Amino acid sequence: MAEQSPLLTVYPSSCLVDEKIEVEVKGLPADSKVTVHALVRSDDGDDWEAFGHYTSDPSGTVKVSRDKSVGGTFEGIEAMGLLWSMRPVPETKPGRRFRKTNVQTPVKVVFSVHEGHLDKGFKHRTPLSSTAAERWYLTPEVQRVEVTEGEIKGTLFIPAGSGPFPAVLDLWGGQGGRVEYRSALLASHGYVSLALEYVGLLNAAGELQHADNSYFEAAFTFLQKHPRVCPDKVAVMGMSFGVSVTLGLTAYSEIVEPKCVVCVSGSHIMPLKGSLADVYAALQQNVHKIRYDEKMRIIWRDLLLPIPDDPSQKVKMSEIKCPVLLIAGEDDQNWPASESAADMRKMMEKAGNSHLLTVLSYPGTGHLIEPPYSPHVRFSDFKLLEAKTKVVVLWGGETEPHSRAQEESWKKTLAFLEEHLYGNSREVTRM
Question: Is this model's pTM higher than 0.90 or not?
């Protein structure tokens, strides 16, 4: 290698998580074999890594967006491969999932370049060069506010400016807790967003209570009445179990009238009509359909299969009066998202409102369709709410197609929200 250390640069060195970066190494000898490595420590304290094998050009340069990786965690010309192909380092306990729990701090990525084509032992080697970059869900101008409105529990994210802004009620899935990072990212793109906590709520006595329609209606109304929100431009975005809630509210509630809805990796079967307890009870009747793979990872998708013919067991899709974006992974092992999407399309075609439906269906894609460049997680630990025990859940998907789906579906989600919430009237600066 050269006597002088090569120069490793990342541009931009600080940006949103859905922005692309340029990773470049200069000052290498011509035609030298190197490994470019990326390392992240998650908020849970786990280390995640990705790396590619490169050969420098005649000028001694490696440009990740231009050059082919011939090995590592990804191959080919992949500008963002050092992020989307991340996986836990080998010594990590299996079953980990990458989730940002503190959106007020960045995802710090340490990039390094090593001599030779390496596949392991990075922490025991001194790199030729290294640098760090910050990737944010939250821009500095966005305000984060804890919501204490009545019984509503959640976090509100408000973009900079006087507004009023369109808004999104953000509903995550059945694992519960408060998941803020998607809401933070939406606010960074100009939407007031409420990350609503609704699974695993505890009452004043510390007892588990199940949210019902009135809880979600109160959250939607809270958003509508916020002084920085356009009351007639509120969307609902559901993920997994949140899709059941989203579709049920949209079809049946007299209070919730969203401008549009986004549904990710969910189903229209067993809609919310009363309390979440009713949905849980209905699912319990199908526990005999649960399967396990060869590694005893639980597969839940069959709980809702086959798609029922009885219309009373499904959301009445004819009642949907607003645009719907439906995102489904065809290898979803948690929910029958693909089969549900096909049935919803059929129901809406029959009802004459299919013009409101946009379906994005992705082969090789699993359940956890996250914002772009997030690590693909095929399986992870999952805490059962009532039993207070952990199981290992198979989510599905293969890394490369899943990552492609995350990137494309997020771009189309932002375009969908832009079209139906802003239209031609956007006045805020695009982040």
Answer: yes
